[in-house]
Amino acid sequence: MAKYVIRGGNRLSGTVKIEGAKNAVLPILAASLLAGEGESVIEETPALTDVKTMSEVIQGLGAEVSKEDHAIRIQAANINSVEPSEALVRKMRASQWVMGSLLGRLGRARVAQPGGCAIGSRPIDQHLKGFQALGAEVETAYGFVEVRVPKGRKLRGTRIYLDIKSVGATINIMLAATLAEGTTIIENAAKEPEIVDTANYLNAMGAHVRGAGTDVIRIEGVETLRGATHAVIPDRITAGTYLIASAITGGDVYVEGAISDHLQALIAKLQEAGVKIEDDVSGIRVTGGPAMRPLEVKTLTHPGFPTDLQAQMMAFLTIAPGRSLVTETVFENRFMHAAELNRMGANIRTQGRTALIEGVDTLYGASVTASDLRAGAALIIAGLVAEGTTEVYGLHHVDRGYVDIEGKLRALGADIERVEED
Ligand SMILES: CC(=O)N[C@H]1[C@@H](OP(=O)(O)OP(=O)(O)OC[C@H]2O[C@@H](n3ccc(=O)[nH]c3=O)[C@H](O)[C@@H]2O)O[C@H](CO)[C@@H](O)[C@@H]1O
Ligand SMILES: C=C(OP(=O)(O)O)C(=O)O
């Protein structure tokens, strides 16, 4: 079992470079299955376990996949399966996105049903509602979802209103609709930058997707798509994590590659807490901190405050003077880090979807466990300022979304090491 050992108290300073976004490269790899001809080259892909898993998922379906440096090359002409490996699908929820691509390309997909996870039950009813509206038959049985275009028919474009602004459903429906007959309009679509990036890749493949990044996405179906070269956008959640990590230590860090437009909600909140933020075309500089004032933070879909930065923000607020309030509106159970932060001396009370944080003067090192990816990031952030030594377990979660976080934090001056235990 691996753990991070962190001796808190060092101020971070220097430059950290941000890699490609996990949540963009995953749907883009799924989208690459839509290419009936030609090679796709996906550049700026981060070396994460989730990216490896998605590469294995599409490889298992017959795609030829090779990796060189930060690029992944995919040839999807000879897809020969509509059933991704159950073991891989169960490892990672994002593999649900191959459903949209396989349905669009081959008219059928059979995919293991995702279960709930540490942050909520996460149903996929909106994905399936969209596929049905496009004319697919949907059957769920024996732990699998099967979606199929009836014999002799094609997917037909239509108007789909999402009851919930779901990132996953917006992308899955967009993927299937690219090769449907006629025009699909997704209303109440999610607007995350990763959806825009996926749409940009689809358009480079020859798709006609307009409006990604707004509430209404319009997709005019085309006959075929071909491979394309695309560079993935920088990871706004990783960037936000380093901004918060620097701020809690009162540091001075330049987050290279971070796009301030993608991080407006976080930047506004850090500024409200008294942290100084400056941005230029190449990145964002954060100076000062920790928080001088408490905050009220409510997670929302983009451009609201991202749920994927909620845990890290909560860690930041544990030592903010006064009483902060965090409300989680996206996932129903995303506070498991609160109890672990309390083990480090924080004073957090959760009730339903709200967490009340009474700022304390000092956090103390403890042995804590990450329940999910961002909980892991939050515990590392707390460890950076805790008195004494913090041990963070559950690193397989952290490896899903952060490339060499210990090396990057060490380069900024943190005392952190990864220790492999028997
Ligand atoms: C790989 C990836 O990109 N994951 C991101 C994606 O997850 P994901 O795509 O799973 O998140 P969604 O936007 O779909 O989920 C938002 C909310 O809608 C609910 N819901 C969703 C679909 C559905 O059919 N029915 C339904 O009820 C979910 O349970 C959740 O409560 O967006 C989330 C919200 O920004 C991020 O936290 C995740 O990091
Ligand atoms: C929740 C996340 O990812 P996933 O949707 O893959 O679980 C995340 O990136 O914080």
UniProtKB/TrEMBL annotation:
An annotated GO cellular component: cytoplasm
PANTHER family: UDP-N-ACETYLGLUCOSAMINE 1-CARBOXYVINYLTRANSFERASE
Domain Enolpyruvate transferase, chain residue ranges per copy: 7-409
Primary localization class, coarse: cytoplasm
Keywords attached to this entry: Cell cycle, Cell division, Cell shape, Cell wall biogenesis/degradation, Cytoplasm, Peptidoglycan synthesis, Pyruvate, Transferase
Protein name in the entry: UDP-N-acetylglucosamine 1-carboxyvinyltransferase
Gene designation per UniProt: murA1
Function recorded in the entry: Cell wall formation. Adds enolpyruvyl to UDP-N-acetylglucosamine.
Enzyme nomenclature, EC number: 2.5.1.7
Homology family: Belongs to the EPSP synthase family. MurA subfamily.
Active site: C117
Residues that coordinate or bind UDP-N-acetyl-alpha-D-glucosamine: R93, R122, P123, I124, D125, Q126, D308, V330
Pfam families: EPSP_synthase
GO MF entry, a single one: UDP-N-acetylglucosamine 1-carboxyvinyltransferase activity
Compartment(s): Cytoplasm
GO biological processes: cell division; cell wall organization; peptidoglycan biosynthetic process; regulation of cell shape; UDP-N-acetylgalactosamine biosynthetic process
